[in-house]
Amino acid sequence: MKTMMLDPFTRSFGLLFAIAAAVCISSAKADSTSSAPIAIAIHGGAGTIERANMSDARERQIRTALETAVRAGHEVLRQGDSSLEAVTRAITLLEDEAAFNAGRGSVLTHQGRVEMDASIMTGHDLAAGAVTGVRGLRHPILAARAVLEHSPHVMLSGRGAEAFARARGLEFMPDEWFITEFRRNQLERAQAEPQASRTPPTQRWFSTVGAVALDRDGRLAAATSTGGMTNKRFGRVGDSPIIGAGTYADDRSCAVSATGHGEYFIRHVVAYSICAGSLFKDQSLADSADQVVHQVLVDAGGSGGVIALDPDGRVSMPFNTAGMYRAAIHADGQIDILIYRDED
Amino acid sequence: MKTMMLDPFTRSFGLLFAIAAAVCISSAKADSTSSAPIAIAIHGGAGTIERANMSDARERQIRTALETAVRAGHEVLRQGDSSLEAVTRAITLLEDEAAFNAGRGSVLTHQGRVEMDASIMTGHDLAAGAVTGVRGLRHPILAARAVLEHSPHVMLSGRGAEAFARARGLEFMPDEWFITEFRRNQLERAQAEPQASRTPPTQRWFSTVGAVALDRDGRLAAATSTGGMTNKRFGRVGDSPIIGAGTYADDRSCAVSATGHGEYFIRHVVAYSICAGSLFKDQSLADSADQVVHQVLVDAGGSGGVIALDPDGRVSMPFNTAGMYRAAIHADGQIDILIYRDED
Question: Between the CA of residue A111 and those of A184, A208, A232, B151, B162, what are the distances in Å?
Answer without folding.
Answer: 11, 20, 9, 18, 16
